[in-house]
Amino acid sequence: MQLDIPEYMHMLGRHAREAARTMARASTGMKDMALTSIATAIEASAETLQAENARDLAAGREHGLDAALLDRLELTAARIVAMAEGLREIALLPDPVGSISGMNYRPSGIQVGRMRVPLGVIGIIYESRPNVTADAAGLCLKSGNATILRGGSEAIHSNQAIARCIHQGLTEAGLPAAAVQLIETTDRDAVGELVRMPEFVDVIVPRGGKGLIERISAESKVPVIKHLHGICHTYIDDQADLDKAVKVAYNAKTQRYGTCNTMETLLVAEGIAARVLPPLAEKYLAAGVELRGCEATRNILPQINVATDADWDAEYLAPILAIRVVADLDTAMDHIARHGSNHTDAIITESLTRAQRFLREVDSSSVMVNASSRFADGFEYGLGAEIGISTDKLHARGPVGLEGLTTLKFIVLGDGHIRT
Fold first, then answer.
1. C-alpha dihedral sign at 45, 49, 50, 55
2. First to last CA, the chain
3. How confident is the model over 200-222, as pLDDT tens digits?
4. Are 109 and 414 spatial neighbours (Cβ–Cβ below 8 Å)?
5. Global pTM?
6. How far apart are CA 44 and CA 37, in angstroms?
7. Tens digit of pLDDT for each residue in 357-400?
8. Exposed/middle/buried for 295, CB within 10 Å: 0-12, 13-18, 19+?
9. How far apart are CA 261 and CA 374, in angstroms?
């Protein structure tokens, strides 16, 4: 019998909406108990998780998944331990729900402030990595939200096994199992239905490739927290310290190649280019990075490849780097404004005035001075964990942790006050 997708998704939505009311009033202790219980259940189910994951890996090989995708899909013993540890770490984080800020007396005598509250129901759509099932559920649970999870079809058995552990932990803590629901069908129409249910879902978080995020952004009737791509820049100012510039720019590209906060374009002031580019190029080339440069760059580094216009708009996610020599700070910021993705951009300089201008004028979710773009990460920012990175301006921007999964409402305290 064929599943009625709209009916099925609306059922999940109704259950999530009901569970969200319970989660919003759940105590910190109950939520932390659920997180630790889920962690224990995951550890106790390690053999089952690996057996179900083996089914997904076998199907993936049969369908021709490449080695990189199979690696992302695999649940090793170490990854299962890391899932459990991640949930316990979330339990240790401060609970943002219910915190009150900015309480002030008004001339009328009332007190006005703001309280942090959950968003409600969060739909999360992701690919490949089954550990995201536990990570996303944990963050939504701690922030007092209900969630509907849609993992990739290639990980369906792994995700179902993890979801059973989540439901066990929620039940043990006295919280509704419907607070975390996994979409059990691999039918792509379920995603389309999920993003068109504003009556049940308050926000959508897509985690995956650009194609997935573009589709969700185009189809969704629900607000989306997202970033499409990470075209990150580092600008080496002519007042930069050479040692810092080489160290930071090298790390920003080579620490990891396949992440959204990896530098893709290096901008260098013409006044320092002849001194900083040769030692940098030596390190990059020794690490196997392909360099593509503008004409001025190739005058200094004739051995590298020519950069085309397309390179300034490329997110390589690979050991490839585009380099452009620019006249000054203004030219660098113009380049970032034209070609950047509002993700993460950095300046290397010893000039406080130029650093302040860069911080103020570059319109990205993370802007850095004398630091690698690879620091644009929820854990590194002290958030403990993140659901993703947003390059939008509403309502969250940059790495989205627990606080980003909540919103604020005004609260007013009076004692029989009336407006005259």
1. positive
2. 65
3. 999 999 988 888 899 999 999 99
4. yes
5. 0.89
6. 10
7. 999 999 999 999 999 999 999 889 988 878 889 998 888 899 99
8. exposed
9. 5
* Other beta carbons within 10 Å of 386: 21
The whole-angstrom distance between residue 123's C-alpha and the CA centroid of its chain comes to: 14
Specify the residue for token string 């108990």.
33
Distance CA 239, CA 246 (A): 13
Q: Which residues, 6+ apart, have CB-to-CB distance to 70 below 8 Å?
A: 57, 60, 61
363 burial class (0-12, 13-18, 19+ CB within 10 angstroms)? middle
pLDDT per residue as tens digits for the range 64-96 = 998 888 998 999 999 999 999 999 999 999 999
Which one-letter amino acid corresponds to residue 340?
G
Contact 331, 357 (CB under 8 A): no
Enumerate residues 6+ apart whose C-beta is below 8 A from 137: 38, 147, 149, 166, 180
235 in helix, strand or coil?
Answer: strand
pLDDT given at position 1: 59
Helices (H), 152-241: 156-172, 189-194, 210-219
Give the H or E element holding residue 209.
none
Q: How far apart are the C-alpha atoms of 117 and 29, rounded to whole Å? A: 17
Pairwise CA distance, residues 244 & 235, whole Å: 12
Phi and psi for 410 in degrees, rounded to 5?
-75, 140
